[in-house]
Amino acid sequence: MTSRRLTVAGRVALLIRAGLISGLIIAGLSYPLAALAGMGVKAGTEALENMPEQLTETPPAQTTYVYAGDGKTLLTMFYEEHRKHVDLQDMSPYMTKAIVASEDSRFYEHNGVDAKGVARAFVANQKAGGVSQGASTLTMQYVRMALRDSARTPREALEATEQTATRKLREMRLAIEVEQRLSKEEILERYLNAAYYGHRAYGIFAASQVFFSKAPRDLTLTEAALLAGLVKAPSAYDPATKNQTAALDRRNYVIDQMLKIDAITEEQAATARKSKIKLKLSTPPNDCVSVADQHNDWGFFCDYFKSWWREQPAFGRTPQEREENLRRGGYRVVTSIDPKIQRYAMGHVLEKEKRGSTIAHGQVVVQPGTGRILSMAVNRRYSLDQERNGRHSDWRQDDDVKGNYPNTVNPLLGGGDMAGYQAGSTFKIFTLLAALEAGLPLSTTFYSPQRFVSRYITAPGPATCGIHWCPKNSNGSMTGNQNMWSGFGKSVNTYFVQLEQRVGAEKAVEMAERLGLRWRTEVDRTLATKEHASGWGAFTLGVSDATPVEMANVFATLAAEGRYCEPTPVESIRNPDGTHALHQDELVTAPRCRQAVKVNVARAATDAARCVTGYGSARGSCGGWGTSEMVYGTLGRPVAGKSGTTDGNKTAWFSGYTPQLAAAAFVADPDNPEHLVGEGRSTMSKYTVAQTLRDALKGEPEEDFKPPSDKYVW
Fold this sequence. Notes:
Number of strands: 21
Largest sheet: 5 strands, antiparallel
Radius of gyration: 34 Å
Shape: elongated
Helix content: 25-40%
Number of helices: 26
Strand order of the largest sheet: 5-4-21-20-19
C-alpha cells in the first residue's frame, strides 16, 4: 500500500534502490553489459527524475474508407498505415489470450514493470554475453508504440525506438504512469490496435483482414496464435513466404505458452499444433488506382473526390496537409456516386465509343438543388499502366509516345488541373441568361443573316472580314428573323452574336463565372479579365474550355430554378468517433448553394432550352425545329438542354436536364484538340444523355418545368 502513495518517479527509484531492478534498467536490458559503463544507481535515479511523468498519446493514424452513395459498396481506402480501431469486446478472446501468453505472461500481476522479468533477463543476458532476453512488458511495449506514433520529427521517432538505456528508463517510468491511469483491458486494447504485424498492417483489424480476410472477432485459436507470434518480428515470422517453418514454429510456441498460462486446454493445444497454416491473403485497396476491377470506371470519380478533398479548408491549411489527413484521419466517407446511374451512364457511353478509341466519350450526371455528382463515366480505364496503350494521336509526337487510351489517370471529366474541352454552342446559355437578366424578354428579335459583321475586332483569319469578326451560321435555313426561342433552339450563331453585342460580352463572361466556370488556360484567363472581356465576341460560340462537371452543373442550376450549388462528390463524412466532420460549425458535406440568377430568369432560359430538345416551349414558338429533337423523343418526358459543336467538329457536346437530373456529355480527343471527331459523332452525346436520363428516371414521377412570368416573355 505504501508504494501506491509514492510518485511515479519515487516508485521506480524505490525499485532501483531496493535492488529489484538494479543497474539492469540503466543498461536498457537489450544491451550487452558493457552499456552499464559509467552509469550507476545514483545517475540512473537522477536521469529518471528529469524524465516526463505522463505519456502524451496522439491518436494513431487510421485508414479512411470511401463508399458509394449506397453506403455499402466500398469504392477504395486511403492510408499510410492500414489501421482501424477495434474495441476489445469485438476481438476474439483467443487473440487477447495469445498476445498475453506470448509477450507478457505476468501482465495481470505487475504494475507496468515486471521486476521478476527484469531480473530473469539480466541473468540470461549476463550468461549470454549479449542480448538473449528482454524484459519489456506489454505496457512498456505500448508506451514505445505510443511514443513512436506521437513523434513529430524523425529525431523523436528514433528516440522512441532506438536501443538505449535512456529509452528503456523512459518506457519504465511511463509504463507505471499508464498502469495507474488505465485498466489492464484498456492497455491491452490499445496495444492490439497499435502493434505492427507486417504487410503494412497496423493493429489487429488490419492484420485480420490482410492475413485471413476476416474480422478480428472471428479469429480462431490457430489464427490468433499466428498473429500474436508476428508481433515479435513480422519479417522473420512472415507466414506469406514459401517457407512457413519459422512462422509455424513461432505459432506453436505461442500455443504452448497459452497452455502454460491455462488459457487453453491440453486437447485444444494438441489439435492446434497439428493444424497447417491456412491463409486467405488480401491486399487492401489504397487510393484511386486500387478501385476494384468491377468498378474501375469509378476511378475517375474517385480522382475527382480526391481533388475536391484537397480544396476543403476543414481538413488542413494546405492541399498537402489535407491529403495527409485523408490518409491518416480514419474517416468514413459516403460519396454521391449512384451505382445504378453510373452503370447506366457507362453502358451508354461504351456502346457508342469503345475504350480502345483515340476519341474520348464521357458524361457527368448532377443532382439539381444539391450539386451532388451522381455519375462520372468515360470510355477509359483508370490505370497507370500504359504498356498496351495505342500510339499518340498527335502526329507531331515521336512514334514511341503512347496515347492516353485505353488506360489513363488524367481527369478527363473534371477536377485536377486539366483545362477541359471547347464547349461550342452550349456557351450560348450564358449570353441568353445575361440578356434575360438585363431585361431583354424571350421575344427579343433580330434579323439573322447567314454571315454577320460584328463590332468585335479580331486578328485576320477565316472568320474575319477586314478587321472585324464575322461569324456565320451552320446553314442557310437559319437566315431570317429569330427570337430567343428559335435562336437558341436552332443554335443560330448570328442571332447570338447580336444578342451578345446588345448585352455586352463581359456580361456573358461574368454569368459563366457566376455559374461555376473557371478559366484554366492562359488565353482564357487573359480574355476573361475586365480589360478584355468586353471584346471577347467569340465567347458566346464556346471557344473557351470547360469540363463536363462544370457544364452539367450549369444546367443543373437552371433545373433548380437558378439556385447554384457547388459540385460535390460526397454525401457524408464521419470522424472515427462517428461524429460528422464540420467546418465552422457547418457540415462539410452540406450543399453549398446560392441563388445565382432570379427564378424567373432561370425559368425563361429553360423555356428557350425546351425548343432545343423537341419538347417545345410553354410560352412561345420554337420556329419549327430544334437541333436535338431526338432527346425528347428518346426520353419521353419534359426535358431541356443545349447542343454544341466547334469548328470542324473538333468536339461535340450536349447538356440536358429535367427537373430532377442534369447531365452533360462530350466527344473529343483529349490528347490532340485539333483531331476532328467527325460528323458521324455529332449526335452521340445527345443520345447518351437522353438514354441515361431515361434509364435513371425510370419509375420516378414525371415533373414539368414551370413557365416564366410575362415580364420575361414579351
